[in-house]
Design goal:
A hairpin with a 2-residue loop joins strand 4 and strand 5. The strands form 2 sheets. The chain has a 6-stranded mixed sheet with strand order 6-7-8-3-9-10, with helices on both faces. The chain has 236 residues and is α/β, with parallel strands linked by helices.
Length: 236
């Protein structure tokens, strides 16, 4: 049986809004196995972004425990968390977050600038992952010279370049048309088949169904595979 790579235990996250306390995450527990492909789905305001920030070590819970590879994230300092984000987690964003003045290869190699890897090795690794997503021939082009789907492939290559265990994708098809969305999802399935743990954040049921497992957030609470809650969603 696979080992849980992520264990969230009774996670609580609160925010103050005016004089009111909002429970963005309310006693959330979740285990994700190594090599899994999990979609976290929910409407706007459900707590998806907060949960993504928690899993990605960008935020800390007010209560509860987060174990990543059996290590208690709550005991890590900011520098240790930054190292975890750089080495263990590859982030993929809806709007690509590419630097427009850098080429595809330069964008991809950015996470490696914080390592002791030589420039030659960085370029070699960047070209390797660009080839993996089918864009080695576009390595010298700027983001503005690429289509939306190609830009997202560059972003996926950047997420892969440091050889992370986990790929955390926040609405990765949100800015793409349906044909290109299918292509990007296929890339993510292939990466999962290669052994990457893929966590997909989405509000779109048709996208979520592509994952091997689906959990649903609503009002800060988590429901496994939706259950009766699935029928309550109106997806737009």
């Amino acid at each position: 049986m696979s080992t849980p790579i992520i264990q969230l235990k009774n996670i609580v996250k609160r925010y103050k809004l005016g004089g009111e306390t909002i429970h963005a995450l309310n006693d959330v527990s979740l285990e994700i196995l190594k090599g899994g492909f999990v979609a976290i789905m929910g409407p706007s305001g459900s707590g998806k972004s907060t949960l993504m920030n928690m899993i990605g070590c960008l935020d800390r819970p007010d209560a509860g425990t987060y174990l990543l590879q059996e290590e208690d994230i709550g005991k890590k300092n900011d520098n240790q968390l930054a190292a975890i984000r750089n080495q263990e987690i590859g982030f993929i964003f809806q709007n690509f977050n590419l630097l427009t003045r850098l080429t595809a290869m330069e964008n991809v190699e950015m996470p490696l600038l914080y390592t002791k890897m030589s420039m030659a090795k960085r370029r070699e690794r960047a070209l390797e992952v660009l080839d993996q997503v089918g864009l080695k021939d576009r390595a010298g082009q700027l983001p503005t010279q690429l289509s939306g789907g190609q830009q997202q492939r560059v972003a996926i290559a950047r997420a892969l370049v440091a050889k992370p265990t986990i790929l955390l994708a926040d609405e990765p098809t949100g800015a793409l048309d349906s044909k290109t969305s299918k292509e990007i999802l296929q890339v993510m399935k292939e990466l999962n088949e290669l052994g990457h743990t893929v966590i997909l954040i989405t509000h779109d049921l048709s996208i979520a169904k592509q994952a091997g497992r689906m959990v649903i957030l609503q009002d800060g609470k988590l429901f496994e595979n939706g259950g009766e809650r699935l029928g309550e969603f109106s997806i737009h």
